[in-house]
């Protein structure tokens, strides 16, 4: 399966199994995810993601959820050869291995962008934000993410490609950051965002309609 910096596999399982935590084998199969060594070394990374998935599933959003292994855990660290192992990760290079429910569909990036498709895309994002308003954020409190608001000044390191008016615009915003954002940080509300709500993390299915044009139905929001 396509992935950015991990390895994903769509697997089918036999009906005969020894996992006491699986009552019925999914006919659609499962997604086996092997996470790169860098993300696997982050404390609380998998638990916070799994908490989010389960929460969204309970809210009625179609998203993969973790499946417990034979030991009753939703993830484990294993030695797995990866093409993109980070040499800067200290200690043993271990990868997080986990099994998720599989949701069929195609990435929205493979489809033509229509007004209806873009509207539904935005609507799905709004539903996501509404669903995570009461998400338990305990696992996210100490999780440092690059796109958090406090990291905005670091954008100066990545401005080589900007020229002319665009460069001036970005610099003007960054120059005002200390006086208008940083000093008011404690008063700003905190919340959870998806962080990667892009065209490759949203799945759709083509649903035929009688006497009308086919339309796309959103099938999953991947985390």
Automatic annotation (TrEMBL):
The keyword ATP-binding does not apply. The keyword RNA-binding does not apply. Signal peptide: none annotated. SUPFAM superfamilies: Protein kinase-like (PK-like). It is found in: Cytoplasm. It catalyses: (5R)-5-hydroxy-L-lysine + GTP = (5R)-5-phosphooxy-L-lysine + GDP + H(+). GO terms for molecular function: hydroxylysine kinase activity. InterPro entries: Aminoglycoside_PTrfase, Kinase-like_dom_sf, Pseudomonas-type_ThrB. Catalyzes the GTP-dependent phosphorylation of 5-hydroxy-L-lysine. Belongs to the aminoglycoside phosphotransferase family. This is Hydroxylysine kinase. It comes from Caerostris darwini. The lineage of its organism: Eukaryota, Metazoa, Ecdysozoa, Arthropoda, Chelicerata.
């Amino acid at each position: 399966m396509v992935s950015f910096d991990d390895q994903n596999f769509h697997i089918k399982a036999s009906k005969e199994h020894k996992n006491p935590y699986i009552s019925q084998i999914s006919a659609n199969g499962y997604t086996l995810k092997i996470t790169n060594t860098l993300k696997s070394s982050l404390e609380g990374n998998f638990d916070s993601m799994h908490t989010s998935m389960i929460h969204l599933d309970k809210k009625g959003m179609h998203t993969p959820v973790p499946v417990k292994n034979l030991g009753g855990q939703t993830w484990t660290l294993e030695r797995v050869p990866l093409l993109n192992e980070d040499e800067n990760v200290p200690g043993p290079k271990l990868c997080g291995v986990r099994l998720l429910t599989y949701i069929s569909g195609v990435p929205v990036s493979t489809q033509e962008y229509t007004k209806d498709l873009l509207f539904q895309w935005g609507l799905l994002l709004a539903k996501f934000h509404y669903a995570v308003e009461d998400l338990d954020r305990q696992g996210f409190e100490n999780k440092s993410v690059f796109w958090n608001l406090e990291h905005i000044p670091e954008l100066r390191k990545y401005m080589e490609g900007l020229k002319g008016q665009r460069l001036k615009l970005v610099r003007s915003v960054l120059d005002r950051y200390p006086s208008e954002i940083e000093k008011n940080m404690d008063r700003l509300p905190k919340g959870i965002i998806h962080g990667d709500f892009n065209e490759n993390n949203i799945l759709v299915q083509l649903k035929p309609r009688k006497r009308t044009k086919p339309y796309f139905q959103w099938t999953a929001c991947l985390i």
